[in-house]
Every structure is written in structure tokens, then in C-alpha cells.
Amino acid sequence: MKNSAISISTIIAILMAILCMFSCSRHSAHWNTLRHADACMEEHPDSALAALQRIDAQELAGKEEKAKYALLLSMALDKNYVDKTDFEVLQPAIDYYQSHGTATDKLRTYYYQGRIYQNQQKHDELALQCFVKALTEGTASDDILTKARVLFTQGRIYSTIYEWDKCIATYLEAAEYFKRMDRTSSYVNCIADVINVYTITGDTAQAGKYIALAQENLDDCSSKIKAHFYSDYLTYLATYSQDEKDIRITINEYITISASSGTDWLSVANAYLRIGDASAAMDALTRHKGIVNVAQKVKYHALLAKAYKQGENYKEAMDAYEYYVALTDSLEYARVKSDIQFVEEKHSLELKNVREKAKNDITILLAVVIVIIILSLLIIARYRLRMKTAESELAKQEKERYMQLYAQMEQERDSLTELLEQNKGLNQAARDALLERIALLNRFFMANITNNPDASRKVDKEIDALLKNKEEFMTSTRMAFAGSHPHFIKHLERCGLNEWEIGYCCLYALGLKGKEIGEYIQMKSHFNNSSDIRKKLGLPEHGITLGTHIRQLLSEA
Fold it and tell me: For 476, how many CA atoms within 13 A lie in the half-sphere containing its CB?
């Protein structure tokens, strides 16, 4: 009944897996449109967005297709400069790709999730967490451009919190990815930001190195990227250069290049102030438009105060400076507040991770328990199999031992019977010893032939006992000769032989040969024993055999 239940549950599981496989493989008529939008996303994001917006989301089939649509639409919106601040569009992709999808799907989903946090302008910590996950989960992805964008965006966040080493490292890694993909403009864009960081940190040698590297690739860049480079280059010159002519030339080149993409007049004003041209600096500040955040306001009023001071308008300079100080305080407050929010967000994220870890730990614990149970069952089954195999092997060995014992007893019985028949002159005690052993051997064979278990067990015990202590037979033989040939035994004793050696000699007296005695007593030291006895009897190492000499002594006794 149990086996039937297991079989049914197994069949149900297989059927469910097959149904799930087929259901996951089904797509709507929009699937090809999604694939086309994915293919043209990089080069024609406007076309991809238009194609995606024509799709009725209600007609999409399955979670996979809805996740793919959500991810592609989020990508298209971002590439068309539509900055989303909520997760309404991307959420299906976030939910699905947490445990499904390829490394590329995970990489992109976490990246665009982080971009949404950035668009909210108050969750850089959460954005950074998403970017770290993007690179971790997307390690196996071949989407090099998305990896480069993740790193570049990470660098921007590091710059806002003054993590300069991390900032430079991520910019340079992003630059290498862009270079590998022949994206020269993006490559130079990263290098320009590296120059800006080295300018801030005062590393003029490194800044000069990357300025030269960027200039080598400027001809292949868009006007927007050229303008970005010149803006950072102009800031570098305004900070460290003493060459007024070089600064003026660079200002003019920058204004010409940036005319179509928008000039950073704050950088221009800063450069003019460096060479002492307060009038040109004031003109640049007047032309500056679109102050969008506190940081730009701080920079603007700092430059304005300096321009007024150079123009000897001290009251206006003081007013601008006081406003600059107030803005600096508010900026510092905002930064501290942002740090506090980072701590709170990090704490919240850590709590979430703890709960997820606890949940995962329970799952892992259950899995471990199941594995332990399975392994225990396998070990028990293996142990039983090994025991059964061992028992079988033991039975086989026992059978082989029994057959060997049988052959040995058979050979011994035949040898002793032949010895008894050939030595008619043996005294009665020696003959009785031989007959007793032959009778015991015959009982062994009778039990084996008749298959009588009780008789067999009894004889087995007697045989085992006698085989383990063959000295008993040698002792009975020695005692027999002591009664029939006392002078023979006395002579051996006078020669210094011990009881065992005398019994050994008695086997020769019975008519056994040296080889037969060795096989009978089954001792590896048989030849050593013979050599010791020859010495005690005064026999030379070579010459008459020990058996011949013993039988001569017996006949003379």
C-alpha cells in the first residue's frame, strides 16, 4: 500500500512538472514583439518604446511574459528620458526575476530598480544596494553595457558621499567595459569624471594622465561628451594652472563646442575668476540658467561673491557670501539628514534581510533534516546489505574451511591407517594411540556421510579441539613408547630433549618422514626443531637423517 502511494505521488509530481513546463512555454501573440523590442532597444529605444506601448498588457500570457514586458518597458522609458519614480511598471519583473530568469534578466531588473530609487532623489542607499545585487546576480550575464552602466551609476553615488577611492575604481571599471564595447563617448565620459575626482583630491599627476588619455579619444566622441570633458578640464586648469593664455584658449574652445549641448557657465565663470577677469565672470554668471538644486546654488553664490569682490563691490560680495554660508549650512544639514535616512534605510533593509535569512534558514534546516533522514536510510540499507554480504562471505569461507578440513582429515586418516598396517611390530600402547585417532577421524567422516547434525556437531568439536592441540596426540604417542621402550625414552631425555621434542621423535619412531611430520603438525619452525634435535643428539648437520637415526635408537633399545 505504501509503495502504491509513493508511486501515485511520484506520477502526480511528474504530471505537474510537465503541465508547468508546457504552461511556461506558452506565449501570446505579443511574444515576438517583445523579442523585437529587446533586439532594437540599444540602438533605437524610441522604436522599442513605441512598439511596447502598442501592446495591451491584459493580453499577455503568464508571469514570464508579463515580467519580460515590464522589464523592457522600464528600460525603454529610461532610455527615452522618462524618469519613473514608482515601481508600478517594473514590479512584475521584480517579483518574477527574484527566483526565475537568466543572469541578464536579474542584472537589468536590479539596475532599473536602482534607477527608480535614484529618481526619487532620497534613496541612494537603496539604489546602491540594488546595484550591488545587480552585479552579483548578473555575474554570468554577457550584457556588458548594462554592467558598465551599473558601475558608472555606482560611481556617481560614491562621489556624492565623498567615497573617492570607490568612486574612481568603479568609474575606471565602467570605462574598461565601455571601451570593450567600442563605446568611445561613454568611455571618455567615465574618464572625464575620473579627472574631476583627481582634481578635487589634488592628485595632479593622475589627473594629467587621464586628461591626455581622454584627449587621444576626443575626435571619436559626440559634442555633448566633448563639452563634458572640456568642462572638467577647465575646472582642472582653473584650480592648478598658472597659464592665463591656456585658460582663455580652453574657455573659448569649450564655449564653441558646448554651444549645441549647453554650456556650464559656472565652470566658465570659475575659469575667468582664476585669471582675474571679474567682468567676464559676472557676464558668465548672468548667462547661467537652470539652477536645479542646492549644490548648484552654493557654487553660484560662492562664485558671485568672488566676482563682486574682484570688482570691488564689497557690499554685494558680503551679501552673496552670507547667502552662500546659509546655503552651505542647509546643504550640510541635508547631507546629515540624508546620512540619517541612509542609516534608517540600512537598518530596515537589514531587518528585512534577517527575516529573509530566518525564513531561508528554516527551509535549509528542513532540507538538511530530509537529507539526513535519506542518508540515514541509505546507510542502514547499505549496512544491512553489507551484513548480508558479510554473512554470505562468512558462510562461503566457513564452507571452504570445512572442505579444507575434510581433505586434511581424510589425508591424515589414510596416512595413519597405512602407517599402522606397515608397522606390525608396534607395541600395544602405540597401536592404541593410532587406533583412537583413526576412530575419531572415522566418526568425523561417518557424521559427514550420514548428514547427522548432532553427531556432526559433536565430532566437529572433537576435531577442532584435537586440531588446535595436536600435542595431545604427540603426548599419547610419547607415553606409549615410554611404556614399551623406556630405554629409548630415557636415552632421549639424557640427551636433553624436552617432552615436546621427545614426542616429535616418537612421530619419526612411528614411521613418519620429516616432510609428513611437518605437514601434520603444520608448524613453520619444523626445520628449526629438527636442527635443534640433531644438535642435542650429537648428529652432524649433514649425513644420516633424523628419522633413520631415531628408528635405529628404537631398534637398539
Answer: 15
